[in-house]
Amino acid sequence: MKKIVLSVFILICFSGFAQEQGETFGGEFTFNPSDLPCITAVQKAEIQAELSKSIARLSKQQKIVKADAKIIQQFSWPVRKSSSSDFNDFWAISNFVDHDATFPDKLRDYTCSNRTYDTEGGYNHRGLDIYTWPFSWFQMENDMAEIIAPADGVIVLKSDGKPDKSCSFNNSQWNAIYLRHDDGSVTWFGHMKNGSLTSKVVGDRVVRGEFLGVIGSSGNSTGPHLHFEVYDSSNNLIDPYSGTCNNIPTWWADQKEYYEPNINALLTHSAPPDFNTCPATETVNINDEFGLNSRVYLASYFRDQQSGTTANYRLYRPNGTVFSAWNRNFTNTWSSSYWYWFFDNLNDIGDWRFEVTYQGQTESTTFKVGNSTLSVEDPQLEKVTIGPNPFDNILMLNGISFDLDNYEVLVFNNLGQTLYQNTKLSPEMNLSSLAKGVYFLRIQSKTNSGSKIFPIIKK
Questions:
Q1: pLDDT by residue (tens digit) across 23-34?
Q2: Long-range contacts made by residues 205-208, C-beta under 8 angstroms, separation at least 24?
Q3: Rounded to two decimals, what is the model's pTM?
């Protein structure tokens, strides 16, 4: 009993040292900051040789049709959020195809800008890199980001069983699937999660939107992402994007904008998120239930944050009124960023709402304050509820189906001082002696260490 009272006392005391409400934490998250190659020339040559053999064999078996030049290939987006994801969105782009064959630092993407990379060793990035954001490793561990077929086709090569927690260049092959489409084009899907690939085998047909696997970090990789490459029927590398420096018809059914500003996630945390050291799964500290006056971290995760733009934040009380409103002005353009604040003084019981508006998009998330119990260790107490709350003088306990003599009850304040105590539990409690305010009611088992704590409000 003393241990639980002390923990509440410590929580309340430390809340007094909160930093100024307007202070902002966070910043840029950079994917592949060292610009490491996704695949070596040797590895690519090995894959091309295997593909050539497999396509020839499948053609003889009549499992793939002759390339139809009349087909104008139009790809849908090759990734989607899985049903296990609660995030608003889950991806960002780090690199496009480099159209400048010289190196190093000779960069030209399809818009003639430099959102790509090359290396001193002669590697020019030849695909589209789509990485998961936020919490790439957390998403991978929970299968939250799926790779899907961008068009109908046949699996012509499949590679699985490789380690999928790469954090650097390691000269290892990736887990991947390769599709041959009816126009003769071939798409590559690299860095997939080990063991996540579709159960379909080489020679099987897939349709647009069909599951292929989960985004992972196998092969030469610095974190979970999809490396997507496209080759036409003559085995020429294709950048599917149409732009000033790639003057071809787009291969996308709906080509996305060069920048796609977005609120990928709006989350509440019990402690600051920790991105840890690759490949450790991030310590996300996601939580949506908090005690009265406990520290609540409100965090926003952006894709393609744009310089010169502003995000508008609002925090609503359970009754719908605004508790706090503030803005964040952005002075940098970043592919992924995160910003968070904390509050120590949320003492209205109920469902709070955290809302952000950015570039015409509004997202919100809810979290509970004071509604959940602070401790449940006894199965008999799990069914117990209280009401009404807030109350006048009489507080009722509901769901009692056990011997009242085996439990005692006490009420204490924010400082841990006991103001009411009874060695026998009663379904009806007269608390008229309490002044108006916020308290904690604790039911304690006499036969084990089980207890349950409710925040209560005297009107």
A1: 899 999 999 888
A2: 205/152, 205/153, 205/154, 205/155, 206/149, 206/152, 206/153, 206/154, 206/155, 206/179, 207/149, 207/152, 208/76, 208/149, 208/150, 208/151, 208/152
A3: 0.80
